[in-house]
Amino acid sequence: MNTFHVISQCRKYNVSLWACPPFLFILMGGVNVAGMVTTAIAAQRFSDDPAVVIISVSMMAAFLFVVGNAVVSSFQRLADASRIKSEFVNIVSHQLRSPLSAIKWQLELMLDQMKTVTGDAAVTMGIIRRQNERMIALVNDLLEVNRIEDDRVILRPTAITIDNFVEQIANGYKPLAEQANEKLVFVGEARPLVVFADETKLRWVTENLIDNAIRYTKAGGEVTVKVLRAKNMARIEITDSGIGIPVADQAMIFQKFFRSENALRLRAEGTGLGLYLVRSLVGAMGGKAGFASMEGKGSTFWYALPLVSGEAMVQKK
Amino acid sequence: MKKLLIVEDEAALQDALQKAFAADGYEIFQAFDGEEGIKLAKEKKPDMILLDLILPKKHGFEVLQEIKQDETIKDVPVLVLTNLEESTEVMKAIELGARGYLIKANYALKEVLAKVKDILG
């Protein structure tokens, strides 16, 4: 009986209905029957000889059967490959975390023991530590991408006063902005805006956008973080006076692993996962994300989340 | 002196945890697999247990279950310290009675120390 539960089987494959082998199997069966009926009707019109009709119908049936099988089996292979890839990424990422945490903790112990590290050693230690953190972050991003693709994102939503929340995060980036010789400005709303979202994910999204804005802006530039109310949404805009995104690259900017040409020139590191995750996570929390950009002038990246009204908050609690 | 049992199979991680907690004044017991973890928990009656999930001989969840079924140690707080983070695993750990769930790669030793101190009160 389970063979007939097409929808649940397709969910397991985690592909759209049109690429799902069990559904395609049934669809091709339908096409096969329809093709045979049409052929029979057409053959009867052109010939009175029953033998001709039977031969035409059988040939059409054989042809459709072969084509149908080829279609279903190639989609089957594709679906299996995608599932295996996703499992592989999952296992490898979890395996990588073990040595990465060992390096992280042993390094922490060493730095504690040495108390004061100076000169070249301090620089080297700093580099090792940052590279270790970078790799942990990369593994975390890969796991998150995998979860998004398999529809397994873990959300723990709470009520968040987003203007305060974003202001605090922005303040945390002041040192990085100063270091890069940039001005970081926060513009808030007069009234508090409350949204219902996962705090950790929302922090990640916001940090990612502010971090990008600072990194892709040259010294002397400015980054503005703005929280405003747009109808029944809280809208967060991060505007920079940075390198901007070339028009040709704009359509692909939220795609996984995509990095714009000029971004690659300015900064070789980076995975091209950040903006993909930003859009997916904001989407998972019921919001939207987008951008406007002019090459050489700068970009505004924004995300918007539905505001929670007083009554809705009581209900959700 | 508070007694702490660390159940962790990875030597490099076990070593880091042992040093960090010993320096902070804890008496440490180390177990490198699930069975040893249960044995030491019963023998030493620690004040708290740090528990990895993927362990040789016995999975962390089984260890947790056995601890919670043993009258003499069922109230010892267990902090799960792992690198697995699927929602099903977090839920299961909490259902089985773990007091906390930390992803090793995302926490500094100092933060693990703070969490333990917090649970011990």
Give me a quick take on this structure.
By secondary structure, chain A is an alpha+beta fold. Chain A has two domains: 1-152, no CATH class; 157-316, Histidine kinase-like ATPase, C-terminal domain (Heat Shock Protein 90, 2-Layer Sandwich), CATH 3.30.565.10.
End-to-end Cα distance of chain A, whole Å, is 42 Å
For the largest beta sheet of chain B, what order do the strands appear in spatially? 2-1-3-4-5
> Most extensive interface: pair and counts?
A-B, 18 and 21 residues
The CATH topology name of the largest domain in chain A reads Heat Shock Protein 90
What would you note in describing this structure?
- The complex is a heterodimer of chains A (317) and B (121).
- Chain A has 317 residues and is of the alpha+beta class.
- Chain A folds into 2 domains: 152 residues, no CATH class; 160 residues, Heat Shock Protein 90 (2-Layer Sandwich).
- Helix content of chain A is 61%, strand content 15%.
- Chain A has 11 helices and 7 strands.
- In chain A, the strands form 2 sheets. In chain A, strands 2-4-5-7-6 form a 5-stranded mixed beta sheet.
- In chain A, a hairpin with a 3-residue loop joins strand 6 and strand 7.
- In chain A, helix 3 runs antiparallel to helix 4, helix 5 packs across helix 7 and helix 7 packs antiparallel against helix 10.
- The longest helix of chain A is centred in the first third of the chain and has 65 residues.
- In chain B, helix 2 packs parallel to helix 3.
- Chain B has a 5-stranded parallel beta sheet with strand order 2-1-3-4-5, sandwiched between helices.
- Chain B is globular.
- The two termini of chain B are 14 Å apart.
- Chain B is α/β, with parallel strands linked by helices.
- The model of chain B has no long low-confidence stretch (mean pLDDT 93).
- Chain B has one domain: Response regulator (Rossmann fold, 3-Layer(aba) Sandwich), CATH 3.40.50.
- Chains A and B meet through helix 3 and helix 4 of A and helix 1 of B.
